[in-house]
Amino acid sequence: MASSKLFEGIPPFPDDIPTVSMNTVSLAGLRENDTKAAEQVLAACKKLGFFFLDLRGDSMGDVMIKCIDQLFTMSQEIFGLPESVKRQYLHDIPRSFLGFKPRGAAKTETEEPDRFEWFNLGQDGLMGNTDLQALPEFVTKRISYFKEFLHYSQQIATFINNTLAKQLSLPAETFAAAQRPTELSGTVVRFIKTFASPGAEDLRTSMIHHTDFGSITLLANIIGGLQVLTAGGSALNEDVWRWVRPQPGCLIVNLGDAMVQWTGGALRSNVHRIKYPPGEQRFVDRYSLAVLFRPERNASMKPKMGQNLNLAGVEDIDLTAWEWEVKKAMALSRGEAVVESKGGESVVV
């Protein structure tokens, strides 16, 4: 997450709304192979599928916080580019998710237009696995910042992957070996702008409820708006959603469907959404920065553990990651997919 300095100039997150209880894990503890930190990661990934990763007090984490602060400033300038410029770099779903997604291009659960835009930078281009995607000049001139952020994010994801593998009595490299940065994948660095909600008509979902397709998502934001679904609850029941309260110096980490698949349902991918920011925060635009890690395109989606492959969330075990992701994306676009939390243990929020 961004430094405490960036939290100082924003309206306060209210204290009178229901928030989710999340484990806070020290990055320093993970890097030092601390047993308590490792156990906290596994517990969080079995029960909720979300946890805070505290970057503070760790040499790599402190550098990461500085990267995030710099990119938050840049993100406002990226989304502030003229619409005529952004239209030159639109994504082309389903062929490519890279580039800009304009506001209103997707729908919410009420069939109303969404209230966010994003800008995706592909890991493959940043790593040199493929040619770099076409980019606005503003981004091209600052490409080193994005590469630095991705570099540290990859290291953090590897620590999490290795920790989970060892806690599940698997070889440490089990998950990381299927997500090598030098191989083609759908991994992206994503900037998101959710628009302020000053009017009563704006007090609704901005990004529809979903689970992430990939393995691990690292998220940094300052303004609230992210909500997690209570275990066993219906996404259409407003009473079972809980707000996530952003914490200075802490990344929000959540698991995606690929980790459920690979662990035979042992780990959890939880439904979440972006709502309007709570309290006075609704009057300001909400910026987020994330890395969404996905498996290598040719990685096998066959579970790496577990005997009961009928567990929730485990499917299509003979597909490659690319085939698996395309099938899921097409089912979602056709309205055939059931959006629900997958795997893990039941949890009371």
From TrEMBL:
<dbReference type="Pfam" id="PF03171">
    <property type="entry name" value="2OG-FeII_Oxy"/>
</dbReference>
<dbReference type="Pfam" id="PF14226">
    <property type="entry name" value="DIOX_N"/>
</dbReference>
<keyword id="KW-0560">Oxidoreductase</keyword>
<dbReference type="InterPro" id="IPR026992">
    <property type="entry name" value="DIOX_N"/>
</dbReference>
<protein>
    <recommendedName>
        <fullName>Fe2OG dioxygenase domain-containing protein</fullName>
    </recommendedName>
</protein>
<dbReference type="InterPro" id="IPR005123">
    <property type="entry name" value="Oxoglu/Fe-dep_dioxygenase_dom"/>
</dbReference>
<keyword id="KW-0479">Metal-binding</keyword>
<dbReference type="GO" id="GO:0044283">
    <property type="term" value="P:small molecule biosynthetic process"/>
</dbReference>
<dbReference type="GO" id="GO:0016491">
    <property type="term" value="F:oxidoreductase activity"/>
</dbReference>
<dbReference type="InterPro" id="IPR044861">
    <property type="entry name" value="IPNS-like_FE2OG_OXY"/>
</dbReference>
<comment type="similarity">
    <text>Belongs to the iron/ascorbate-dependent oxidoreductase family.</text>
</comment>
<dbReference type="GO" id="GO:0046872">
    <property type="term" value="F:metal ion binding"/>
</dbReference>
<feature type="domain" description="Fe2OG dioxygenase">
    <location>
        <begin position="180"/>
        <end position="295"/>
    </location>
</feature>
<dbReference type="InterPro" id="IPR050231">
    <property type="entry name" value="Iron_ascorbate_oxido_reductase"/>
</dbReference>
<dbReference type="InterPro" id="IPR027443">
    <property type="entry name" value="IPNS-like_sf"/>
</dbReference>
<keyword id="KW-0408">Iron</keyword>
